[in-house]
Amino acid sequence: MFLKTLISTPAIPKIVKTPFLTASHKTLHFLKHPLTSRAYMSSSSPDPIAAGESPTQPCTDGGGSSEDVIVQYVVLRRDLIDTWPLGSVVTQGCHASVAALWAHKDHPDTLNYCSDLNIDSMHKVTLEVKGETQLRDISKKLDANGIKHKLWIEQPENFPTCLATRPCPKSQVAPLFKKLKLCK
Fold this sequence. Notes:
By secondary structure, this protein is of the alpha+beta class. Helix content is 32%, strand content 23%.
């Protein structure tokens, strides 16, 4: 009886790693499916590799090349990092990031950035500025260059703690941030 039950139990599907090269990085990556990737959990989502398609999506707003990675920049204040609990500063960055995504949820770059194929490989760059003045300056610079972003204003204190851009092609936004340091 036990042997019969064991034999008639359906096999557990194996996790298969499928290699692919991204157009923007020329790097070998692996997609895990069918159990571990959101892209393959829904029966309505076809397997793009089986269909012969590339798992990367080109930029659709005309601003970047098809090999231009979509990235979201988050800028935190060093003075707060040094004086607040780390979790509180991280939370501020999360607020700004989500607010920027939500405000631009229908933009083609945001849709691409949050698509089933890209959700597990988002690109974010977290930078730091010295304090409030520098944060406001970078916000003005982004406005002047037409880069949509969210300057997070903490309430009820009513002061800016960080900012996050909407997802954009890296070539469009990286030059505006080149003087800032990576947050460490």
